[in-house]
Here is the input.
Amino acid sequence: MVTVIDGKGLIYGRLASYVADQILAGEEVVVLNAEQIIITGDPAEIFKDFKHKVEIGEAASRRKGPFYPRRADLLFKRCVRGMIPWMTTTGREAFRRLHVFVGTPKQFNDAEVQVPETAKKAINCKYVTLGQISEHLGSNVR
Here is the structure.
């Protein structure tokens, strides 16, 4: 059974924890529109934090990482990876059941899309989307 989730307007951490629970339970999860996932908070601080993570593992200065992604779909996958036991076989197998896309591929146009209630929130504060962060980090995928 494949669960298809539309990430448009959902909260980053809440959605990541929901997805982590689902993949650890053996469910295959597909997240669409990763560039429209929202991170709440001061945009300047969020940009600074993500830029710092990328600069720590710059390939030009360090060869061993940690290598941090710049694309919106990979940023979300990295967040989910932090919520599962990555160093175990169970965690690695669970991570393989997660598929994240920027936009909506053709094969999922007619799919039944779910929107988890736990990842929704009325937003009345400052926020940034993963697409804006990705653009700030220099990704070419939009």
In short: The mean pLDDT is 92.
